[in-house]
Design goal:
Largest sheet: 5 strands, antiparallel
Strand order of the largest sheet: 2-1-5-4-3
Radius of gyration: 35 Å
Helix content: 25-40%
CATH topology of the largest domain: Heat Shock Protein 90
CATH class of the largest domain: Alpha Beta
Length: about 400
């Protein structure tokens, strides 16, 4: 429908004298339903748009073609002001077409007076804004859906303007991760949470702007309590209030980085994997503040030495699954248990089991096709181990990974 305009002339009935503004207002409001104007000329486009013939509209009041709400607004608000001031501009109305369809318009009008100041007729122009209003409504709905996803996402999401050193928006997960409230984060510079690697942040965001997207796991964030967090960041270009910006999804991988560091073997060949798992679970328990014993971690580990090529992906799997259980399996401060088992079966295959008695996975989740970055990582690492993964989702969640030690030729 575009922004086409149409014109109509209206003869004012009755003429309004102007001895004083106060008398005009009083007389107009007392006139009630008689307040209005009869159409004496309309454009062909106006007729086409509303679906009428000329003989069907001339002599009728212009307000007859408005919807009920628009007619009430015209009689009670717009027309009294128009008769007083002699003009109006961009008044939002709704016209009802002959077939019952409603269109949105913006109406502007100017009055013509005689030599004594009496208002004798007016010229009105309307612009059809139906498509524009519909597009704006759809945009508002889209923004509302985005805001719901943004605020309730399990991922930490932040919107930044690195060129201005600004944090433009963030969700609750970012606030919890960095230990700030939302208003505090919006008032501090971006460099406050990246004091150690701001040049790398600028380099990364420049690459995102150039390519439209980007990923890194080499940046750190500083919390309000001065704790340094390692982060995995997926970012893309976007706009906020018409301004270019970057929207980034942040994943805290501090535990993973520490797990990788702990996997550095002393003899550069083998890792006592059971001892490593004990240290890893202890660290995770401290990270998730399990001193209250709300969630108990129970270990059943055989002493197994693994080469670094096998221990590294296996350690990352354990870190991912145990951390995920600690964070998501027991919501609302529920109590529960996590069991970690490491065994070698009769076929000399290693069986790694991580089990919890929490709320379980969503029933409609197919783990090999999920969009969860954590689950994708677990599947990728299992493939790297040339192993098999099984999942049971009953009275909690059970992951079982069966693999054998990877056979790499000596590196020395």
């Amino acid at each position: 429908m575009g922004s086409n305009s149409n014109t109509c002339l209206a003869k004012t009935i009755p003429p309004v004298k102007s001895p004083s503004k106060q008398r005009i207002k009083l007389k107009l409001f007392k006139a009630g339903e008689n307040l209005g104007a009869k159409l004496i000329s309309v454009s062909n486009y106006w007729l086409e748009k509303l679906g009428y013939e000329k003989n069907e509209v001339l002599g009728r009041k212009s307000t007859e073609f408005l919807t009920e709400d628009s007619r009430c607004h015209a009689l009670e608000v717009t027309l009294p002001k128009f008769f007083e001031k002699g003009f109006c501009k961009d008044i939002p109305y709704q016209f009802r077409k002959k077939n019952g369809e409603i269109i949105d318009v913006l109406l502007s009008a100017i009055a013509e007076r005689d030599e004594t100041g009496n208002l004798v007729r007016s010229l009105a122009v309307t612009i059809d804004v139906t498509d524009r209003n519909r597009a704006e409504a759809e945009l508002r709905q889209s923004e509302q859906r985005f805001r719901q996803i943004f605020n309730h996402s399990n991922d930490a999401i932040v919107v930044i303007d690195p060129s201005e050193d600004l944090i433009l928006d963030c969700n609750d997960k970012v606030c919890r991760m960095l230990q700030y409230d939302r208003q505090e984060l919006l008032e501090i510079p971006l460099s406050r949470v990246h004091p150690h690697d701001m040049p790398q942040v600028i380099a990364f965001t420049n690459a995102v702007i150039e390519n439209g997207h980007g990923w890194t796991d080499e940046l750190t964030w500083l919390t309000k309590s001065n704790q340094i967090l390692n982060a995995e960041i997926s970012a893309a270009t976007s706009h906020l209030a018409g301004k270019p910006c970057i929207i980034a999804s942040i994943r805290n991988i501090t535990d993973r980085k520490q797990a990788e560091k702990a996997l550095q073997p002393t003899d550069l060949a083998k890792v006592d994997f059971s001892e490593y798992l004990k240290a890893l679970v202890s660290h995770l328990s401290e990270s998730y503040n399990l001193n209250d014993r709300r969630i108990r971690c129970e270990l059943d580990l055989e002493s197994i030495d693994l080469n670094i090529e096998t221990a590294h992906p296996c350690g990352l799997i354990v870190n991912e699954l145990v951390a995920n259980a600690l964070e998501h399996a027991f919501p609302n401060d529920n109590k529960g248990n996590i069991w970690l088992s490491l065994k070698q079966n009769s076929d000399n295959l290693i069986v790694l089991t991580i089990k919890d008695n929490g709320i379980g996975l969503p029933t409609n989740l197919y783990f090999r096709q999920t969009e969860s970055l954590g689950m994708q990582l677990v599947c990728t690492l299992t493939e790297q181990l040339e192993g098999e993964i099984k999942i049971q989702n009953c009275n909690g969640t059970l992951f079982e990974i069966v693999f054998s030690e990877l056979n790499y030729t000596s590196r020395f």
